[in-house]
Known about the structure:
CATH topology of the largest domain: TIM Barrel
Structural class: alpha/beta
Strand order of the largest sheet: 2-1-3-4-5-6-7
CATH class of the largest domain: Alpha Beta
CATH superfamily of the largest domain: Aldolase class I
Mean pLDDT: 93
Number of domains: 2
Number of strands: 15
Bound molecules: cobalamin, iron/sulfur cluster
Amino acid sequence: xxxxxxxxxxxxxxxxxxxxxxxxxxxKHSPPMGLMYIKSYLKKHTDAEVRLFNFQLPDPPDASDFxxxxxxxxxxxxxxxxxxxxxxDACQVARTVKDVLxxxxxxxxxxxxxxxxxxxxxxxxxxxxxxxxxxITMTEIVHRLExxxxxxxxSGIWYKxxxxxxxxxxxxxxxxxDRFPLPDRSDFDVRQHRFxxxxxxxxxxxLTNRGCPHKCTFCMNNDHLYRTRRAESVxxxxxxxxxxxxxxxxxxxxxxxxxxxxxxxxxNGVIGRQVNIPWACRCRVDNLDKDLIxxxxxxxxxxxxFGVESANQKTLDDIKKGTTVQQxxxxxxxxxxxxxxxxxxxxxxxxGETLEEAKKTxxxxxxxxxxxxxxxxxxxxxxxxxxxxxxKDPAFGGDYFRGYALHPIPNLVLKVWPTIMTExxxxxxxxxxxxxxxxxxxxxxxxxxxxxxxxDIFAKTGMALKIITxx
Length: 471
Ligand code: B12
Ligand code: SF4
């Protein structure tokens, strides 16, 4: 049995209007963690020969490389990971598979499928979708195919049977993430992965938990069951990455500091075992205090990303963020004091937000003085509370996302939701904020002093040009 897992290309990705994506321009080259987890689980629990084809590399393979792999490897099953940003590209991949190998089973999974399972199966080229976590479901699919059994009752899948779509029961998320072996990093040249702001690269992306118990209304966090890995297993992964040549670790958890105990055990373990590798993480501004931040710094934390979102307490309450503006100030101050650099995320255009309030958010971004700031216009995303509210407002123009899921088009332009401010006001604010933040003499001087080779100069100049030229 041969399985090919595919991370689709990004040639026709959906477009965030304006300058919102600037800080993440190259980050789409992060390794596909979902597929890497599925691959290692399949390798452990089946005899299948599993390969991973990754289109999302700085020097990406093209469609003819992919066709060549299909012809040479002849997979029985192709599994494609799909986020809504790359839905059109994912459809192209599936179509290529069916053109070259019509009998190969094409299975889709990933965040887009969690929302649009039936729309995906409405496309001719998909045979099956996996809704939810894929490790165990994929393994069971392979076992059934190997033994010639049908898919009757296999939880977590929907599939086509003739003209009918069979919807099997949902699969519960795995309560113990340590059941999953470490993600398989063997397919990648580690040096290829680089986030513009990484101080030490290559940086390994590592997940220490899954899920998030919060219910922020703008976030599509599909599985709220929050689960942590054992610290020992996380540390083993850090050690493994270091041996592979990674020079830092980027914890990709949505919410690294949800459990203080979890953070403490990772930090204490890292210190005790003298792992000695710098790391970055994404934290909420609550759940932190000076002792914890000092411990994190001692354990190698060099950068924290904070979701500030807004400077207006009423907005923070409305979006159910569960944080206060004061906590934002304290979190940045504590990180600064501990010598940890910071990235602040700020969102412009929450429903009901006035121009004055949005300007306050931008002022706060300067007051907090993060090392990097990322400004976004609010894009109501499917399966979020804000999207549900936007659908009730005729000004938003209806469920264009479902239309896209049914009839994929290249480079869909994502929609903002103008309630009080106009779209132009939001886009202008974000562009000006980027301009003001990144063209400050102090920022330019610091960036120049930290330039790290030609690639870095090229990437940072590209970012600067995009800020200047984007309308
Ligand atoms: C890291 C991350 C990023 C990184 C890197 C993205 C990348 N391309 O690698 C950065 C910071 C750049 C980023 C940016 C954005 N992201 Co992002 N990101 C994530 C995050 C936090 C983690 C992804 C991850 O590694 N997950 C861990 C793995 C194990 O989970 P997984 O990928 O879902 O895979 C599991 C299942 O889905 C399933 N599965 C997945 N693929 C497959 C395939 C098969 C065949 C099968 C059977 C199963 C299967 O099995 C896997 C294992 O259990 C997720 C949130 C989350 N917690 O997942 C959001 C998320 C993927 N991002 C999202 C969004 C919206 C964005 C942005 C648009 C945000 C923005 N406003 O700019 C941009 C888009 C950038 C871009 N062009 O892609 C959404 C996607 C929504 C959607 N409908 O597709 C998510 C889900 C966040 C959210 N809660 O809203 N992101
Ligand atoms: S925004 Fe962050 S804290 Fe809020 S639900 Fe999403 S992941 Fe959790």
